[in-house]
Amino acid sequence: MSSYFNAVIFCTKRKKEKISSLYILKTSLCVYLLYKIFSIRRKYMMPFKKHHCQLGLGSDSMLLKKPGLWANLYRSMRKMCQVAQYHPDTYDHFRSYPAVVAERQRQLYEGDKNLIHPLSLVSLCWHTIMAFVNLMHMFISTLRLFFVLTPPRTQTVHAIDKVLLAFHALCFLDILFNFNIGYTEKEYSHIVMKRRKIVCHYLRRWFLLDLASCLPVAFVLLYLDLKDTQCLLFAHILPLLRTPRLYTALIDVKVFTKIFTRSYIWYGMMRHAVLFVMTAHWCTCFVYLPPVLCYYWYGKIPWKYNRFLKDPDRDLWNIDLQNRYRKGMFIVLSSFFGTGFSMFRASEPEEIVIHALIILYSAMFMVYTLVLLLKVYMTTYSSTVRYHELMNQVEEYMTYKQFPAPLKKRVRAFYNYRYQELYYREETALDCLSEELRNEITLHTCHKLVNKVALFEGVSASVVGSVLGCLRPEVFLPNDPVVRAGDIGECMYFIANGTVAVYSLKGVEVCHLEDGAHFGEVALLMRDSKRVATVVAVEITQLYRLDAEDFRHFLLTHDVYERIESLASKRMHETVLLDEAFRRDRLSEKHQGEIPHLGSSN
């Protein structure tokens, strides 16, 4: 990504005297945004290694290559209009890359060659732009109707009218675009790429609203200096017909959010934030609905309205637009958050009804917000909540069985160490995965253990992964015996975390084993398979158990067998020496104790 910013900096140095710092910042942000959009395959959509084919199968776009600059540009544009594997929704419709290629072929041979696929990069970029355009169009059109007021018979073209005219032009381009882009039949999960069906589908759904909302009738009337306020009212209402486009704008915002994250929580939060901003703005406009309607219909504003403005004349055109908007927004936010209902001073039935509707909607919206936040919380902390539910059941069980206090403490310590306050069912999560992926996950989760255990040095990754796949985690509390001397050895252990103490047959403490060590292999190598030592946990210790069958299957068929045999004989020798030394010490102590006894008897 540094190359993109280096290019921007190089260009700005060449024109340093002409380009302002604000322009540099905007350019950098635009380049960064484009980089993020076109790098979604590498970082978000396809987080695995890409296959570099060496078979030379040709282009997957199915488009013929022709010589010439314009031919190459035309081919590049047509490729961008085909279904793209980098679109966030592509693999929701097509399960494999061959299916994507087949869809490109279908578009080329069955549909119109000049149509745009709804899952193409052109569609992604245009719908992202139109999401912003639609939202701004809804915002500015209502702002123009309710807040840009001048004394009657003096209406002229306002700066906001010029901005709105530019958005009208973009919306008209969107109409042309919609006649040339396919659509998805959700019932059949089929993408329609036939022009006749596309045109009929668009004419039945959005065409009339889009056309009526993008006609600059108000701008023409103001430009021609027509003073009929009633005609201006209807002309300003036409852009408000684009309000239902909020539905498609939210869908486009969701698709754009998928570029950066696959978390549905972020989708919901982004959608909710857009809804809050837009509806709060619309409610702010509706606060002034009665006086604005009177202004456009009768050419004047009755003095009985707008008592909350605390203006003696209460003429909206004599009050600054920002002050009116700030006051209306303050009243609306007070309704949303349930504070200061008395600030909206009104005595007329129309204003009271409108304020009541705003309060009703804001209450419903805040309830919906609360439900959404609870859902986000339960989703984010579901494993923690389930852990505490499990612990409540354990506490009830221990109370019912009348566990003593020390035993309760040990049980709580076990669950706390085992789950770390996050309860999940690992078997359920891993059952649907392939064996190769499960081994890879196991290798990743146990990579610290692999690095610590010297036994695995020089062993191939496949063998290590197979061994790790056979390991079973076990947790032992302090002073818990892991193995006892004389028992039949059916497994060996690897220490992931913690410390254990090793005792000989005579009860002599031989050594301590810590992270990365292993024990129990001696009994698996001996013919009688009996343990030669007792192992006790010194602290809370997490071990991985390897059963005898898996031990013989994986380890005894590789070079690691020699290491195990050498280490086992060394440990056997040390244990025997310690037992012998302990036996001699006990005999000497016993002999020294007998000498004074004989002397006293004489």
TrEMBL record:
Keyword Transmembrane applies: yes
Q: Which terms in the Gene Ontology molecular function aspect does this entry carry?
A: voltage-gated potassium channel activity
**Chain ranges of the Cyclic nucleotide-binding domain:** 455-555
Keyword line? Membrane, Transmembrane, Transmembrane helix
Task: Write the signal peptide boundaries.
Answer: none
Where does the sequence pass through the membrane? 20-38, 121-143, 163-181, 202-224, 273-298, 328-346, 352-374
Which InterPro entries does the annotation name?
A: cNMP-bd_CS, cNMP-bd_dom, K/Na_HCN_channel
Q: Name one GO biological process term.
A: regulation of membrane depolarization
UniProt keyword annotation of Transport present: no
Q: Name one GO cellular component term.
A: HCN channel complex
The molecule here is called Cyclic nucleotide-binding domain-containing protein
Q: Which organism is it from?
A: Manduca sexta (Tobacco hawkmoth)
